[in-house]
Amino acid sequence: MIRKKIRAPILLIGWLIALAATACAAPTPIPMPTPAPTPIDPQSVDLKPFLRDLLATLPANEHLLTSQDLAQMKPVIVDVRQPAEYAQGFIAGAVNIPVRELAASLTTLPGMDKDIVVVCDTGHRSAIGMAVLQMLGYGKAKTLQGGMHAWRAAQQTIVTAPVPPKPNHPAPKVNAHIQAALDYYLAHTLPYDWGIVNTTALTADQKLLPSSAVDAMPETYDQGPSWIVNVDTPDEYAKSTVANFRGVFNFPLRQLLDRVSEMPAQSTVDFG
Hints:
Blueprint: H1 48-56, E1 64-65, H2 67-71, E2 76-79, H3 83-87, E3 95-96, E4 116-119, H4 124-136, E5 141-144, H5 147-153, H6 176-189, H7 199-206, H8 211-214, E6 227-230, H9 234-239, E7 248-250, H10 256-259, E8 268-271
Parallel strand pairs: 1-5, 2-3, 2-4, 4-5, 6-7, 6-8
């Protein structure tokens, strides 16, 4: 990622000196103008150090919480699904903040030292939301493993009313540059399908032939199957069926940021 320099606007301040009419007259204080805040370019912010810290401090349970554990707690629950999904049934007390709006909605969250559990349908969007909150300083943010699918399978209660009102807390003290970059990612970079690929789509992708196999003069960009990144530990990877796929890279999650450069320059599919 290219880091652009943020150039502050040059503020020219003219000093007006008034001469006192008499020797004992006090000078009139002149108010100093307040400089306008420097605008933040979210695309110029380097998130790698914060991602590296997040992965380096990831606990053994990867901030995952089971349905049974959640049922025995009283945390703030943030449901990051779309409003239509949320309306079909949610965990009692869960506040709905769609994941794309999360970084811009911090006033709806409690203090940064409080327990927060992020929830979605399957656990994919909630993992993104949890990572965003962790990078912003919400050290107790967790995600519901398996999402609402797992909650239903555990026969836990789901409600459709009452819908909790969104709280309005004071704005937390977070790194404004990181907040802007994460907000931009969620609102503009996160794919429409949340970056999820199902088994059917992955199988079809892996059956694609490379351009060199079907064209005597292939394009510079090879249109063949995507590479697969497996983020399990080496022991887990050795026991998994994904090792049978073509072109699989095993980069353990905590090493992912530093090892992804080992991949060829081609589209990838994450496979946890």
